[in-house]
Specification:
Shape: elongated
Number of helices: 3
Structural class: mainly alpha
Helix content: 55-70%
Strand content: 5-15%
Order of helices and strands: HHEEEEH
Distance between the termini: 65 Å
Strand order of the largest sheet: 1-4
Number of domains: 1
Number of strands: 4
């Protein structure tokens, strides 16, 4: 599976490089971005389109990485709590195994096979 992921990333990298090489002239066009709210105006420096595409890709990758890190931390905490619960349940099972079955508090009211309630 690891090799398939690597092959997929390699194909994506080669395809994106071909895209940038084949569209070099249109992607080199400078674009100036504008952000206006009421009387507040912000203008960016003139940036080539390929730089905006690369910055957008990088920001998307960082956002995905942040989500994955948060999920990994959450799963780590969940795993720790489940391991603690498993250890407690295992200890309880071990203590119940050592109790003899013929004690009155350990019997659940199930009659042994072959005897009836009237015989007792």
């Amino acid at each position: 599976m690891r090799y398939l992921k690597f092959l997929g990333m390699l194909i994506l990298f080669v395809a994106s490089m071909l895209f940038f090489v084949q569209n070099n002239q249109p992607l080199s066009t400078a674009v100036q971005l504008e952000f206006s709210i009421l009387s507040f105006h912000l203008y960016s420096l003139p940036l080539p389109v390929y730089l905006l595409v690369l910055i957008s890709f990088l920001l998307g990758a960082l956002v995905c990485l942040a989500f994955f890190v948060v999920e990994r931390i959450r799963l780590g905490f969940e795993l720790k709590s489940l391991r603690t619960r498993y250890a407690a349940l295992e200890d309880e099972a071990l203590t119940l195994r050592t109790l003899p079955l013929n004690q009155a508090q350990n019997q659940t009211g199930i009659q042994p096979s072959g005897s009836s309630a009237s015989e007792l």
